[in-house]
Amino acid sequence: MTGAVVITRPLAQAASLAARVTALGRAVEVLPLLEISALPDQTALKAALARLDRYALVAFVSPNAIDAAFVHIPRWPAAVTAAVVGAGSRAALAAHGVPHIVSPGDAAQSDSEHLLQTLDLSALKGRPVLIIRGESGRELMADGLRAAGALVDVVPAYRRAVPALTPALAATLKRLLAQQNDWIITSSEALRGLIGLLAEMDLRHPDAMQHNSVVAMQQQHLIVPHARIAETANKLGFSKLTLTGSGDERLLAALQSCL
């Protein structure tokens, strides 16, 4: 019996992929492993977005950054170039009518390191660049741009949090671990959060020595779009991994190969 496809993206980005997986004839479980919320104080974000036309480049670290920012962007300045790391973010910007988008050419290398290699860094020397990201995140892109001489503003647009281990979530996790599934994991942070939730579950179990949810999870099959997530998974003890490259088309192709 083929198990379910567990989609662990934040809720706002899960629906479209869930519908396409269902169309393949697979059962789908939507299990967001990161909750996305607006910042209580959006003053800095609104101020930066009100002067978008002064930036030579605006980089968005994720679809969540795009969603949060475009709440406050009535019209994108046509002369401003946007930069993103993945195919999903590129599609989201295109849907908002952004004409000039830079992203890594190789879908298997959709990360900040390869975006920096793709950019014409010499052309950004002495020019203002805006990075829109979550409340916390990697500093690699900002550091790389500053090293090239760009004048970088980093503005948070949203916050991420691992969901609390409620009885309902614990029951869902136990049910999913009772069979083999294909787990679509699109964030290293989400995967670490999942392992933390399972470890907490084991500690709460009355017979924790006989019940190891973390080990059960390590036997599941993960489908991941980025090498950095695969590296995180390996360090966390996962061995059943499929690395697809960026974009829903590649995730779906990997699922079809599992049938």
Structure, explained:
The protein is α/β, with parallel strands linked by helices and 259 residues long. The chain is built from eleven helices and eleven strands. The protein has a six-stranded mixed beta sheet. A five-stranded parallel beta sheet has the order 2-1-9-10-11, sandwiched between helices. It is elongated and about 60 Å long.
Rg estimate, integer Å: 19 Å
Number of helices: 11
Distance between the termini: 10 Å
Instruction: Categorize the overall geometry.
Output: elongated
Let me know the average pLDDT: 89
* Uncertain residue ranges: none
**Class computed from helices, strands and strand pairing:** alpha/beta
Count all strands and give the number: 11
Spatial arrangement of strands, main beta sheet: 3-8-7-4-5-6
* Proportion of strand residues: 15-25%
SSE series? EHEEHEHEHEHEHEHEHHEHEH
- In helices, the fraction of residues equals 40-55%
Largest sheet: 6 strands, mixed
What descriptive keywords fit this protein?
259 residues; alpha/beta; 5-stranded parallel beta sheet; elongated
